[in-house]
Amino acid sequence: MQADSLAIDNSAVYSGVKAVSEVKNIKKFRIYDFFFKKTIGLFAILFVILLLGIFITLLLRSIPSIQAFGLSYYTTTTWNPVENQFGSLPFLTGTIVTSFIALIITIPFSLSISLFLGEYFRKGFFSNFLRNAVELMGGIPSVIYGFWGLFFLVPIMRSFEEKMGMPPLGIGIFTTSLLLFIMIIPYSASLGREVITMVPQNLKEGALALGATKFELIKSVIVPYARSGIFAGILLALGRALGETMAVTMVIGNKNALPTSLFGPANTMASVIANEFTEAVGDVYLSSLVQIALLLFVVTTVISIIGKQIINRFGKV
Amino acid sequence: MKSNIKIRKFKNALFKTLIFTFAILSCVPLVLILYNIVQEGISSLNINFLLNLPKPVGETGGGISNALVGTLILIIISSVISIPLGVGIGVYLNENTKSKLSYYVRLSADILMGTPSVVIGMIGYLWVVKQLNTFSALSGGIALSIMMLPVIISSTEETLKLLPYSLKESSFALGIPYYATVLKVVLPAGLNGIITGVMLGVARIAGETAPLLFTAFGSPFMNFNILKPVSSLPQQVFIYATSPYKEWHALAWGAAFVLIAFVLTLNILAKTLSRRWKVQF
Amino acid sequence: MKKSLFISIFTILVSVSLFTGCGKSDKEEPVKELLGAGATFPYPLYSKMFDEYNKSKQIKINYQSIGSGGGIQQLTSKTVDFGASDAFLSDEQISKFPAPVVHIPTCLGAVVITYNLEGNPTLKFTPDIISDIYMGKIKNWNDEKITKLNPDVKLPSKEINVVHRSDGSGTTFVFSTYLTRVSDEWKKSVGAGTSINWPVGLGGKGNEGVSGLVNQTPGSIGYVELIYALQNKLPMGTLQNKSGNFIVPSLKSTNAAANSTIPDDTRISLTNSDAADGYPIVSFTWILLYKEQKYDNRSEAKAKAVVNLIWWMTHEGQQYNEALSYATLTPEAVKKVETNLKSITYDGKPILQ
User: In this predicted complex, what is the ipTM?
Assistant: First the structure.
């Protein structure tokens, strides 16, 4: 009898000790959990602050140039580091012209890829091959595109220009646009493909039941439905083209003046920054370049936001 | 009526041909680029090329060993910064899908993805190089990490979204605290997807040149000190390619070959890995 | 398991790199590496010099040829140990520097006119023709001004593709200074500088970029340092100098042009010199560094290393100049170099005794 009562006492003590230690553990875990949740929340806040920080830095560093030139910075064509007179119109023009030409040439190609992968061959060997090829194209670094462009495209352009009686520079706006168009195909094509696959089956079946050919199906049902998504893809491709640096700087001719011909040299915003940033002596020169970067940042941000809005709205439909 | 059908059928066939032609033509540049690089680059590839340092102008036998090491160092620095941060933020997004902060985080990630790399390089210069008063691998790595973050964040979030909630539920039911659930149950389950994201991020930054022009700066020597300038593979391609010397052009082709092999292998690996992993769930 | 393996590998690598990076206060360890940036003009010479210096003294000199403008800017921001420029600083530029700067010339080079024409003919040029081409007034290769001067060369009826520098360049400074001295119109409308408002032409980055463009584009013309034309086997124009003689650019004619007196701070342009056999577009190229070497947290060892390097470059290193067609410094120039180097101080004390 005495042994039993002793045993009961021991186990009570034992379970009591255990209970206390469990409470302690729960407290410890609660603290860990608290810190863990706060840490990842902190990371998230830091990330947003990072983005704001980028914007604010660009803005602050542009102030000397904004004060010096004001709005005329966007309409003047002189880029004269000796006299500290800067106008960014040549680069705005170069960027817009090359990007838009590239975009226009891209549209039939990326639309074809989207339709090919989204409608004609959703599965199978051809589908896999094309899809992988396009994705690989998106992965090739810019400097390699530029290198290939310099040694392959430029000589071809040169002989073309010689035959046409134009100065055989090889480099210039048109070559750059060609190179850009090749580089941005993957961006518009993949987005376009995704939205085309999202067209509801019943809509398509309805059209087919009414006797539509594949072409008419695409023309009257798929494209109108997927229109906004295709547009978003083109917009994102534009954003990529505007910011492209290395490939452009290798084939555009680096002329800091308004382009005089489609086959002549010019310069773009991203390219002039890459060329002249390490040598920008003086506050005004440096901040002029930062102002160009600010403009690039703002434009690509707006494009990204609009593109994402369109995609989100499309997904909700 | 009959002719109408004929016309429609004709238009259909014509359109199909056009689509096929354009689609196939789009592959031509890729084939050409790969063919050119392999054809020209392979002749430069030998063990000396990979192990030697660059030689002064006019002397033969230069190599890309410092560029290879430099790219590796930059990738490591960038990964050390962006992987913990990116995965942490991805976890946060998955746990707090509808919060206001999540909205802004996703927005910031989209914006950062679309930001030109040269702008980020400029930020790297203004934030790091100017403060340390020297060009350094560290500043290059930081700039690259800013570019790698959005990739890791979105791939982590996508991966975690696909995991069934029952995974977490069963962990909680066993009394495992939240932080341990995430670190020891959820993340390992989604490890394949996260690794895929990391590989894609690395592939993206391995080929970047513009941000390194004003941060890592380049160096003709081997360098392991992250507070000093360092060379990198894409930058060497740029320097050699835009030079007027034929020997350097040959080196450029070789370096381009190595770079593209690395980047494309990463891309292919990432895709195969994600395909295998996606089947499991 | 995988994750902890990754984490441990990362930590090891990071700590190793930080550890090697923690030689920030190099007061204790000897200086192993110096950083310089700037002119592409002397780059072939510098890369040879630094390679030899590394072999004999085991000190690595990391020199990035980003253009003279880049050298000046990076020295202003104190991100490099020394800058290099073929454009000496103007009084205004000197006033913008945070502290006084010393100019040390290292060699003489020549800026040649190179072009891409079938058969690589040797063409004669007058200063007027060059300035007219670069102003866009002469547009064609078979313009009568050129054909009159070169009657036995068959010049094609092609448009002249003008190539200039796209980056801030000391070579541009030398070339444009020459043009202001020989053409009043150029002086009025364009002027001289490291980065000017070119009336015509496309831009190449660095001497390398310009020679590359000329090499690959038929019918083009450009200005590059002598060695770049020689190494790429590009033809060079024979230029008429102030005395009226047509001079072939070479080491000899470069040396001949360097006969003027040099001021104490060595800031002088040697273009369009009076020497009868001198090539008209010749220039020093300088290394720039701060007179007072104790700034930020630079160690005395580092200051000594830089000064010793430049002493070597202007004395023993001169043996490498002529093989690459750069002229060596005249004894008078070396004397001025030594005076200037001895004026460089660390914390007020001269570094060289």
Answer: 0.89
